[in-house]
Specification:
204 residues, alpha+beta, NADH Oxidase, 2 domains, four-stranded antiparallel β-sheet, globular
Length: 204
Amino acid sequence: MSGKKSFFSKLSDITNIHHRAAFTDVAKHTAPKQSAFLRLASERYSCRAFSDSPVTDSELVSLLEAARLAPSAVNRQPVHIWVFKTPEAREKLKEVTAYTFDAPIVILVACKAEDAWVRKYDGKNSAETDAAIAGTHIMMEAASLGLGSTWVASFDPLKLKQLFPQIDGWEPVALFPTGHPAPEATPSERHACRKPLELFASEL
C-alpha cells in the first residue's frame, strides 16, 4: 500500500476537531462553505426538555408534510403517522414509555411490511427503513422550525396497540416527543462525539 493519503485521511484534521470540540465550537471549525443542511444537522440535538409553549397547527402540518415527502423504496410509502396531541392521549402514552418528556405532542411513525418493497435477492423488507427516513425528516424539519425533538425507541409496542387499537395492523417504529425546547435544554455530552471521517467512510 502506497504512502499516499486517501481523500478521507486528508480530511481527518477537520473530523478530529469535530470529535474533540464542544457542541458550541463545532460550527467555527468546519469548512467555510458548509451547506445549510450540514449546519442544521450539526446544530440539531436530541431534546429531552420542553417548554409549555404549544406546537402550532402550521408547525404540525409542516412536520407531517416533511414525513409525507420522505422517499421510500419504489415509492410504496408503507408508513403511517399518529399524533398524540390531547392531554388524555399523552397521559395514556406514559403507560407505554417513560420517555415522553412531557412534550406538547408526540409523533408515532409506524410501518406495514406487506405494503413495502422487498429486495428479491435476500427478502429484505424496506418498511422499517422507509419509516426511519420519514422519522428523520420529522426531526430535521422540527430543527428547521426551531423545535426540539428526540427519537424514542424504548416503548412497549404491544401495550401501545392495546391502549390505542387504531394502530393495530401497523408496526410502531419510533416515537418523537416534539415541542419548543425548554431554557434548560442542552445537547448531551455525547452529541459532538463523532468518529473521524477516515474511520467512518472508505474508498473502494
